[in-house]
Amino acid sequence: MNEMAPVRTGYSACPHDCPSTCALDVELLADGGVGRLRGSAENSYTAGVICAKVARYAERLAHPERLTKALKRKGGKGEGSFQEISAKAALDEIAEAFLRAEARYGPQTVWPYFYAGTMGLVQRDGIHRLRHVKRYSGQFDSICTNLAWTGYIAGTGRLAGPDPREMAKSDLIVIWGTNAVVTQVNVMTHATTARKQRGARIVVVDVYDNATMRQADLALCLRPGTDAALACAVMHILFRDGHADLEYLSCFSDRPRDFARHLETRTPEWAAAITGLTVEEIETLAGWIGTTPRTFLRLGYGFTRSRNGAVAMHAAASIATVTGAWRHEGGGAFHSNSGIFRLDNTMIAGLDRRDASVRMLDQSRIGAVLTGEAADLKGGPPVTAMLVQNTNPANVAPDQACVAEGLAREDLFLAVHEQFMTETAEMADIVLPATMFLEHDDVYKGGGHQHILFGPKLVEPPGDCLSNHAVICGLAERLGAEHPGFAMSAREHIDHLLKASGWGDLARLERERWIDCQPPFEEAHYLDGFAWPDGKYRFSPDWADLAAPNRPADARAIGPYAQMPEFPDHWTAIEAADEAYPLRLVTSPARSFLNSTFSETPTGRQKEGRPEVMVHPADAAELGLAAGDIARLESRRGATFLHVRVSEAVRPGVVVAEGIWPNKAHCGGLGINVLTGADSAAPHGGAAFHDNAVRLSRAGGAGDPDSVAG
Ligand SMILES: Nc1nc2c(c(=O)[nH]1)N[C@H]1C(S)=C(S)[C@@H](COP(=O)(O)OP(=O)(O)OC[C@H]3O[C@@H](n4cnc5c(=O)[nH]c(N)nc54)[C@H](O)[C@@H]3O)O[C@H]1N2
Ligand SMILES: Nc1nc2c(c(=O)[nH]1)N[C@H]1C(S)=C(S)[C@@H](COP(=O)(O)OP(=O)(O)OC[C@H]3O[C@@H](n4cnc5c(=O)[nH]c(N)nc54)[C@H](O)[C@@H]3O)O[C@H]1N2
Ligand code: SF4
Ligand SMILES: [Mo]
């Protein structure tokens, strides 16, 4: 870290894929470098707190392994041998390859592939403008939010909820399926304020004893994929004990009587057998919720990354409707505020040029798409050219073996625009060096809160680094793609976006740093009705017909949606453990990494140690495993190797591997996502990262590695 005294403070916003989207104060140093980053104390959600990994961002910004030059592949694919070329020559090469591919197979052979490595609206979404104008294949964003968003909207009709700052005014906060201490630390700021100021109680529902669980007054550690059973039993008790608000239900819900009847058999004993919780734990949770009007359910993503995840989310949100908690300040069920901003991004994303007949390829099924599965190609040409921005599919996408096979195809031209030589970039024909957020202008919106924030360019980028916007515009020029958005600067885009959306203009945002877009109380709490034509919360959703936000335009529903239950219920669609694969694996987030990011920084790696699998002592004993052993962890899709950590933090029968380590950090060189499945979860797709039946044994079979790689 640079020890020079800061000369001034710059204002920014965290660009990473995290619901907290923190407002940042950045120490700017005399030498043009960056010192420490801090959470803005004036921002009502950030409230002066950020995570440790971003506080030490200087380490990532000035990392010696950062890409600063464009590279062209020299040796065979994936061999890692590149030569430096100019950025201009690199853009020329990409454009030529795209035009060649298009001439042979038509425009849909080109697949721009991207995700949320930066959440900046200009830098992230500009790639859409290029693809719409060029009629390249589209991407159906299924990897992260689909199951969660679909499940929440199934009930409320809208992806928005009570002001997340109201958590500080709650008397009971149920943190459900999010390891907030690790993944969105600001949730804890507001929850602990409520605890300190009002004596609020905190409940945590997770599958292992993690950092958030350790903050809980009631820590509920259930079996993975059984959350809907817990929610149903809680609602059974609420009806049984007279804590269901029948008057509210008759005004504000669709079929309350049928639902109550459905719940009659969902007893705490029934749920205890499914979840592994005790009847007493379930009764305690239901008793607290039933007697606490200001109950705030803070629903995360983790418990939806299962094949029944949409049903689980819907079931948990339904609790707030049964009690009518929505009516109270500090009450209700919050998952995301992504639906409140009403941003018109036509100019950034080139939506005026969208053609609904162009195919959408499933992001999570990149392996199947690249290996030419006919159903995944939707009757169109093979994908023979790609530009990847802000994502590292070789590492993070499910069914990794298939992804690796696809990326290795000799007839695939791959351009990767990156900050580091990721395992995806290693497979590229052309690598372009990317700016980091303090080196370009952008605008951000919260998912876990309600602000639009400004992130201006504060420092100069090193070497030949290009912003995503510069790459997209540079390619458009070479490809003959015409749209007014290609001639605008990032600042002009921000100004245009704000004006088009009714949020003022860039001058206002620059002056005020952020805009608080929180809707009025009545609307946020659905007191004027839920966002369906009849204004009623749906206990019985029409799963197939839901207008999920990321839903592909060309599919009604995917995954086994016809089998989805009529009402919230335990849906057995998960990959159950069986004799061959007797354990359940959850791939939870690591504190010092953010997806695949920060695994390149020395502090991040040092803090996380090495890839490990947490195994309960009873399972370890039965399998003859000791702490520090190298274990072979195998699912129906493949096997990887990691070190054993024997720990009481996990339940018997459940193993947890924290963090998406680089594949090569694992003994044997195959990453955790070799184990996860790319089958589409119902009803609208999504990857079930935490839903795996696995078996575990001591490494040592023929071909097994016996020492740590790297
Ligand atoms: N430090 C850090 N921060 C991150 C990330 C990271 O990788 N590391 N990732 C970022 C991204 S992209 C996202 S989308 C968010 C996601 O953040 P979260 O909403 O927190 O979701 P997950 O990270 O998937 O998992 C959260 C918790 O869910 C638990 N879980 C898994 N299966 C179940 C289940 O069946 N039931 C219940 N009740 N719990 C279960 C996991 O053990 C984990 O503790 O975090 C962001 N922030
Ligand atoms: N096993 C397992 N796998 C998972 C998950 C899990 O819980 N378990 N979580 C899943 C989830 S929720 C998600 S969201 C995905 C995310 O996985 P990824 O999409 O890979 O996410 P990130 O690591 O956030 O970002 C990827 C890359 O973006 C680059 N980047 C950042 N900013 C910029 C920029 O401005 N320009 C360019 N060109 N590049 C930039 C970073 O250097 C980084 O390499 O992973 C999924 N994979
Ligand atoms: S908590 Fe999330 S948004 Fe805040 S600084 Fe850390 S990664 Fe960024
Ligand atoms: Mo995510």
Structure characterization notes:
This protein has about 700 residues and is α/β, with parallel strands linked by helices. The chain folds into four domains: about 5-60, Phosphorylase Kinase, domain 1; about 70-140 and about 340-505, Rossmann fold (3-Layer(aba) Sandwich); about 145-335 and about 520-540, 3-Layer(aba) Sandwich (Dimethylsulfoxide Reductase, domain 2), CATH 3.40.228; about 585-710, Barwin-like endoglucanases (Beta Barrel). The protein contains 24 helices and 25 strands. It has a six-stranded mixed β-sheet, with helices on one face. A six-stranded mixed β-sheet has the order 21-23-22-25-20-24. Helix 4 packs parallel to helix 19. The chain is globular, with a radius of gyration of 25 Å. The site of molybdenum atom (MO) has 2 residues, from loops.
Q: State Rg.
A: 25 Å
What is the number of independent domains? 4
How would the global form be characterised? globular
Beta content: 15-25%
Low-confidence blocks of residues: none
- Major sheet characteristics: 6 strands, mixed
- Just name the CATH architecture of the largest domain: 3-Layer(aba) Sandwich
Text of the CATH class of the largest domain: Alpha Beta
Distance between the termini: 25 Å
